[in-house]
Amino acid sequence: MSTQFRPPSLAISTFGLSLATFMQVLDTTIANVSLPTIAGNLGVSNDQSTWVITSFAVSMAIALPLTGFLTRRFGEVKLFVWCTLLFAFTSFMCGISQSMGMLILFRALQGAVAGPMYPITQSLLIGIYPPAKRGMALALLAMVTVVAPIAGPILGGMITDNYSWPWIFFINVPIGIFASVVVANQLRGKVEKTERPRIDYVGLITLVIGVGALQIVLDKGNDADWFNSNFIIVTSIVSAISLIVFLIWELTDDDPIVDLRLFRHRNFTAGTLAMVLGYAAFFSIALLIPLWLQQQLGYTATWAGYATAPLGVIPVLLVFFVGKYANRMDLRLLAAVSFLVMGITCFMRANFYLDVDFRSVAMVQLWQGLGVALFFMPVLQILLSDLEQNEIAAGSGLSTFLRTLAGSFSASITTLMWTRGAVSHHEQLAEHITAYDPVAREAMRQIGQGDPQRAAGVINGMITQQGFQISFNEVFYALGWIFIVLILVIWLAKPPFSAKGARVPAARPGTSPAPQAQAAH
Length: 521
Known about the structure:
Blueprint: E1 2-4, H1 10-26, H2 35-42, H3 46-49, H4 51-63, H5 67-74, H6 76-95, H7 100-114, H8 117-128, H9 134-162, H10 167-170, H11 172-186, H12 201-220, H13 230-252, H14 266-295, H15 301-308, H16 313-325, H17 331-349, H18 358-373, H19 376-384, H20 392-430, H21 438-448, H22 452-490, E2 518-520
Antiparallel strand pairs: 1-2
Helix pairs in contact: 1-8, 1-9, 1-11, 4-7, 4-12, 5-6, 5-20, 6-7, 6-8, 6-11, 8-9, 8-20, 9-15, 9-16, 9-19, 12-13, 14-15, 14-19, 14-20, 14-22, 16-18, 17-18, 17-19, 17-22, 20-22, 21-22
């Protein structure tokens, strides 16, 4: 008789898995503030240095939906351990890179091995925890997801300022080795059935080309002025054709490399939709607030980090309670409260102005943390609830891929809306400043102190600031309504929300039993 596998120490196993995931999520943001220093040291322009971020994001986006295929081929434990070790190795190679080309190459490889790490962590935690405690495991993982991106820019700035930029990569080496050893030792008795699935070359090639091109469009669109650039037009066409072929092929192939048929599950569809849209809006907030603080309010990168950091306080404090007690409530209700809180904080930011103080910004971040604490774990458990155990890694990889892609979309769209809105409001405000208006003439005389050019420059700067502020408020008003709409979306899911992985799924006629994360006792 087979029973669910239990590692020698559940706490140590969880620590090893969470540590590796924290390292991987941290690296999505830790290099952002170091780009100017990296560009200067390697002798390239700031525009060229952004490929350090783009190469990582493109490779990770491509690797994420392949998680299900890779786990079927190699098994979850082996794949996780090797990805973590390779992540440490590629981090070391990033740190010793002597040219931008070498750094971009190893950042791309680092992103490729990083892709499967987060979804496999979800699947392994569900596999080793008893059903009653899985909420705690997912809540802990959600806390890691929230805290790591916040810590990334702060830690990256401190390391770059006080040491040197290669150390933002070198710190991954001991962490990766330690985490991989811990997980390999704790889960070495876990029995997994592997297969040798046929490689879907058409699906793989169209996925790589389509997603890679799309990620490049999203990352470079704003800098290249979108469809005024021939490069963006051609890349968009290539992406669209490749993704259309990919979708048609994957939905009709007998053994697709990405199983889109997972969307036949109601809770997976509703939960993924809520996760993708909710994360896109959350990512927009996380992107726009630091930019606004630095560009319009004059904050340094460090103080912008301090102002946004309170977001992680409540999730850390509530992780135990959410994990222990969430399953005693309707998870849809918790998610709805989360969306309501985040919507309200967006409406509060829609009333910000240029003289808003540090305390007000930090307090809204603090209260948003309550919404974040109730967002990731309930929605994640809902979307995984009606998947079989052998589908969890693939489902987690697919939902994480869509979530990551939504983050890229939201980053591009939010930046575009903010800047285009600022230009529009600048034009509207400037219409009221004319030489025929006695109030405007008097203001220019006082500001310029007899120098009309100086007065014009100062007033233009003030109008630009006000234009960006009005546009900022409008973007957050729109984000607030997105969260309110998501309250309705999450109620499309239906209970029960306990994972099917708690039981052994029956084999379909004519197939072998689904591979289980079990060991004989």
